[in-house]
Amino acid sequence: MEGLGQFFPLILIFVVAYFFMVRPQIKRQKDEKKFASELKRGDKVMTKSGLYGKVVDLNEQNNWCIIETMAGKLKFDKSAISMEGSKKMSPAASKK
To answer: Which helix (H) or strand (E) holds 83?
Structure first.
């Protein structure tokens, strides 16, 4: 029983790390994948590189989309889309 008692703090650290670090990351990745699969024209998005824009064209077979930004139209892989941008866009950018 003493051997198990010595490993209890180490086991506790791994359990806490799983629930506070690993599990939220897995959930975030699952949510991003679901969001990317449900993209449609007109959605306001933010890329993983921090660009905000609006989806103007989608290609489901090749898994890419064209996003219109203030700088023009850019082609991105759907996996580069991070999240819905309308929640975090500035008022000036969201009017575009």
So the answer is: strand 81-84
- In the three-class reduction of DSSP (H, G, I as helix; E, B as strand; rest coil), residue 8 is classed as helix
Provide CB contacts within 8 A for 74, sequence distance 6+.
51, 53, 66, 67, 68
24: domain range?
2-94
**CATH number of the domain where residue 77 is located:** 2.30.30.140
* Residues 1-58 pLDDT 10s: 567 778 888 889 999 999 899 999 999 888 888 888 888 899 899 888 888 999 999 9
Cα distance between residue 96 and residue 88, in whole Å: 14
Provide the number of structural domains found in the chain.
1
